[in-house]
Specification:
Length: about 325
């Protein structure tokens, strides 16, 4: 396998770099990834290896997740209008994880994060909680829905491609690195995941998680912090609704970092990767326990009904 990967990367460096070099730079807009996969390329009309495969696997992920091929997901409609779709999104991450539970660690944790995201948004838009003048759609609710869509468009198709052909996925990821660079290399991440070595698999998935947090989520949070807020910072403060622990074996953000700000990437990353924290425990727990948690009903995840947990993994202050 490793010889095949090395050969594929050598070939990709020649053929795929050539494709990027011929792209039309006048249409480039890397931040337009929020609009849909067709706007991701420097030249979205080019029928090259990367574009055709990315679009094929994106469509397949749409069908698997939502039962349809069209891009009718409209974050500007707000949270309530998109709640059913968001639930299906997190079911998709569960099913993707189950396709390769020893390799797709990012997808499994994504499923778990759904409980905190959906629970936080439910809390935010609850009429008993909502302050006068704070509505859905609103800056925060549309941003949170858009974040979910952008993560899906960036990473779902790569998982679908890996299910078919890990080597081809690495080739595609090499081009993705060039056109839409993240904080870490996507190609290096998938190369590690393809080794079937547990430590390398974990490191590769952490690289995908790092890209999600820094390259995809953070620009939206930066915009939230810049957005004029007529309610005197209420919108930004409400992001604390999304800081609960996502599984039972790590601390919530405010317990772990009481002076931290979840909107700041480095603070959030320190929480995710703290020793014996969210990511380390997710990787370290037995696969059977990861799978049990990832397959809990979403309502249980929202209300943190974890079932019978492993006491030896529980940190102080968790539940």
């Amino acid at each position: 396998m490793m010889e095949r990967i090395a050969s594929a990367l050598s070939l990709a460096a020649v053929t795929l770099l050539g494709n990027v070099a011929t792209a039309n730079p006048s249409t480039g807009n890397l931040v337009s990834s929020t609009d849909g996969w067709a706007s991701l390329d420097q030249d979205p009309t080019a029928d090259d290896f990367y574009t055709m495969n990315r679009d094929f696997y994106t469509l397949r992920s749409y069908v698997k997740a939502f039962g349809q091929r069209d891009d009718s997901w409209d974050p500007s409609a707000g949270y309530r209008a998109n709640r059913a779709r968001i639930l299906r999104l997190y079911d998709y991450y569960r099913d993707t994880y189950l396709g390769r539970p020893n390799q797709f660690l990012w997808a499994g944790l994504g499923r778990m994060a759904g409980g905190a995201v959906v629970g936080g948004l439910d809390f935010l838009v609850d009429p008993g909680f909502l302050l006068p003048g704070y509505a859905d759609p609103s800056t925060l609710t549309t941003t949170m829905v858009q974040i979910g869509k952008s993560i899906f468009l960036d990473l779902a198709w790569q998982h679908e491609a890996f299910l078919d052909d890990p080597v081809k996925t690495i080739q595609l990821a090499l081009v993705h690195d060039l056109r839409h660079p993240g904080k870490a290399s996507y190609a290096a991440a998938w190369t590690k995941i393809a080794t079937n070595i547990p430590g390398e698999i974990a490191a590769g998935n952490q690289m995908l998680l790092e890209n999600e947090q820094f390259a995809i989520i953070q620009p939206f949070y930066d915009a939230l912090m810049r957005d004029p807020d007529p309610l005197g910072g209420f919108t930004v403060r409400r992001t604390r609704a999304f800081t609960r622990n996502v599984h039972p074996y790590h601390r919530d953000f405010l317990t772990a970092f009481p002076l931290g700000d979840v909107l700041i990437a480095n603070d959030r990353w320190a929480w995710i990767t703290e020793p014996d924290g969210m990511w380390q425990k997710w990787v370290a727990m037995p696969e059977a326990e990861r799978t049990r948690l990832a397959t809990l009903p979403m309502d249980d995840l929202i209300h943190q009904r974890w079932g019978q947990v492993l006491p030896g993994l529980l940190p102080p202050g968790s539940r």
